[in-house]
Design brief:
globular, 14 helices, TIM Barrel, alpha/beta, 37% helix
Length: 417
């Protein structure tokens, strides 16, 4: 089905059930005048619902464990309950920050105070001077294990902590991440992924990645855009990601080509930190501009939402610092009638965090990424997370839905400095 910025959803489904449009995926695309104070106020509202947890949950230990190529953060309360999260592949570089600056702060703290603790952690040992991906990845890994701990202590899935369970399964898109393939090779790869998953949407790379208008292969992007609709047909939703490849003029040119095939979104057309250029491109095009995966600042997200720099907002659950901070971004986006499609930086269990987040977030986007790594970790969840007919199911067990990790981690290596 073809979607575009002005009218890209006439009917929608959530968890496979037909619902009124107001109950479904957020579809607002045009600029809505937003009072900045309203965005500030919504970020200051409490995120978690923890009234049922009426006794302190004191964090006794927090550890970094490695099993094979996968790293876990395990938090244990004095009551003996464990919360577990999975890191992304930047842990090999960032683990000293986690072990020196993040984990020591949480020991002895009440896990129920996690929202306040995140603010205190930002100042602890001047962590704010390290603002960015390096800091917030480590915070996200610790926060995820604490959220899991809270859910398991309450005996409830994460959705009960953040609001309500909205959907049982999440529509996915497939992507290859390639820039070294010919257009014909790329379409063939995507066709195979569609056949394996039943996905109704794809995303491919254009440009050369932060390349100042240079393509990875001369003429590849233009040919791929044209060929994608011709071969994949009108029933497949098409998305393109430039990874900051273009200046304004070239980005608009490529955007017009994507509009000509009724593509759904154009991701990161300009360098992620050049908000002004991205705004120029967004104003010149009808295709929705998406971005935000590299962003670590609440204030810049607020600006991009208020100024309609982005029409689809894409924070990363790890890069941005976890479920709580990302939920605040989603709330700002919802206020502006914008959908959220979380970026996934983890090849281990990022898909699971995505489905959990999508389970309770009202304004989730039309499609979420199917990331690799399911073969290694899907069976840790209950029920196991599987892809079927273009959807991923949401686990229902307490916390993040992992029920078998404790036994698996008996053989894990404890990582120390």
């Amino acid at each position: 089905m073809i979607y575009n910025r002005r009218n890209f959803l006439k009917t929608a489904t959530t968890a496979g059930l037909a619902l009124p449009l107001s109950s479904c995926i957020n579809v607002g695309m045009d600029n809505k005048v937003i009072n900045e104070q309203d965005l500030i106020d919504i970020c200051n509202k409490p995120v978690l619902k923890i009234d049922s947890l009426n006794q302190p949950i004191i964090i006794e230990s927090m550890e970094l464990l490695k099993l094979g190529d996968t790293y876990f953060v395990r938090t244990r309360s004095k009551d003996g309950i464990e919360g577990i999260s999975v890191t992304n592949n930047k842990i090999d570089i960032l683990y000293p920050i986690l072990l020196k600056l993040i984990i020591p702060f949480f020991i002895g703290k009440d896990a129920r105070q996690i929202e306040t603790l995140l603010e205190e952690l930002y100042v602890y040992k001047s962590n704010y001077k390290m603002q960015g991906l390096a800091l917030w990845c480590c915070v996200a890994w610790a926060e995820g294990s604490i959220i899991d701990l809270l859910g398991k202590t309450a005996g409830k899935h994460i959705s009960s902590l953040f609001g309500n369970k909205i959907r049982d399964k999440i529509p996915i898109y497939v992507a290859s991440g390639n820039r070294d393939t010919s257009p014909e090779e790329e379409i063939e790869i995507l066709q195979k992924k569609i056949a394996l998953t039943g996905a109704k949407a794809v995303k491919f790379k254009v440009g050369g990645r932060m390349s100042r208008d240079m393509d990875s292969i001369p003429g590849r992007s233009e040919s791929l855009i044209e060929l994608s609709r011709k071969i994949l047909g009108n029933e497949i939703t098409i998305q393109a990601d430039a990874n900051g490849s273009y200046g304004v003029q070239k980005a608009i040119e490529i955007g017009k080509r994507l509009e000509a095939i009724d593509a759904y979104l154009f991701e990161e057309p300009c360098r992620f930190d050049n908000i002004e250029e991205t705004k120029h491109v967004a104003d010149a095009l009808d295709i929705p501009i998406s971005g935000g995966e590299q962003e670590s600042s609440e204030y810049r997200f607020r600006k991009m939402i208020a100024d309609n720099v982005l029409q689809i907002v894409q924070p990363d659950l790890h890069y941005y610092g976890g479920f709580i901070r990302t939920t605040r971004v989603a709330r700002m986006a919802e206020l502006a009638d914008k959908p959220v499609t979380v970026h996934i930086s983890s090849d281990n269990a990022g898909y699971a965090e995505m489905v959990n987040f999508s389970n309770f977030t009202p304004n989730i986007g039309l499609f979420q990424e199917l990331k690799t790594g399911m073969e290694a970790t899907a069976d840790l969840f209950e029920p196991p997370i599987k892809v079927k007919d273009g959807f991923l199911n949401v686990p229902t067990a307490p916390g993040l839905g992992m029920v078998h990790a404790e036994d698996v981690l008996k053989n894990a290596e404890l990582i120390k400095l």
